[in-house]
Amino acid sequence: MFINGTVIFINNDVNNKAINMSVNSADKRVRRTAEEAKSLILRVASERLSTFGLEGLNISGVAKDAGMSHATVIHHFGSTGAMREALLEKMTHDLLSDVMVALNHHEEPAKILDHLFEMLSHGGHGRLLAWLALDQQAFRPASGSKGLFTDILNTIAEDSSDPEHAKQIIFLVAIAAMGKSICGDAIAGLIGMNKAEAQQFPRWLAENIRRI
Q1: 109 and 65, same structural domain?
Q2: pLDDT computed for residue 197 by the predictor
Q3: Distance CA 142, CA 106 (A)
Q4: Is the pLDDT confidence value at 136 over 50?
Q5: With bands split at pLDDT 50, 70 and 90, how would you rate the model's confidence at 9?
Q6: Mean pLDDT across the stretch 13-37?
Q7: Which of 39, 163, 169, 201 is 20 to 30 A away from residue 189, measured at CA?
Q8: What is the C-alpha to C-alpha distance for residues 47 and 68, in angstroms, rounded to an integer?
Q9: Is residue 5 part of a domain?
Q10: Model pLDDT, residue 19
Q11: Between these two residues, 31 and 51, which has the higher pLDDT value?
Q12: R_g of the chain computed on alpha carbons
């Protein structure tokens, strides 16, 4: 800068640092491990499934809500279908873990079935499972979930002293819970069952299942 013919140097280091800090802050992205990123994506996907149904499980919507780019979600899961399958596996594993904990604590069957039916019906779990079965392929749970299925079967078999009967009981409960989550309201309406009566079905099933 010239003032009265004299050259004056102004130190702009402070200003430059401020500008650089601003730019770096704007460009800086949150750094996560692969597992942290996947966990966040699946958590957001679960929330969108509960709120919007299957239509909410799209890459662009999940990426936006997770604060990530479309490419980042694709990098971790590859496609919408693969993301849905990963979410289904996580939801199934979490649900089976809850059931196993409840069995180990000897909670009453009515409480266990209430939780099972609730999770399948209102979390979107049942509809996601139906989508995979109808639109893609039969659901093949990962080894962790398979192990939980086996543990649940063995625990129930110990109480009934009949492994084959235990399998049929588990099959009946699973089919009933799935059916209720997909079309329970429609069927209840067809037979004149009100909402309160339909909500009592898990407890009714728990109370009467030992007679089968």
Answers
A1: no
A2: 93
A3: 26
A4: yes
A5: very low
A6: 53
A7: 169
A8: 16
A9: no
A10: 30
A11: 51
A12: 26
- CA 191 to CA 40: how far, in whole Å? 42
The letter for the amino acid at 81 is G
Cα separation, 73 vs 64, whole angstroms:
10
* 96 and 182 belong to one structural domain: yes
Overall pTM > 0.85: no
- The 10 Å Cβ neighbour count of residue 66 is 19
Q: Do 67 and 94 belong to one domain?
A: no
Amino acid, single-letter form, for residue 205: L
Residue 67 to residues 31, 59, 98, 149: CA-CA distances in angstroms? Answer: 12, 12, 30, 35
**Cα separation of the two ends of the chain:** 95
45, 77, 195 from 80: Cα distances, Å: 11, 8, 34
Tell me which residue range forms the domain holding 45. Answer: 30-78
Whether 15 is covered by a domain: the verdict is no
What is the DSSP secondary-structure string of 126-164?
Answer: HHHHHHIIIII------HHHHHHHHHHHHHHHHHHT-HH
Count of domains observed in the chain: 2
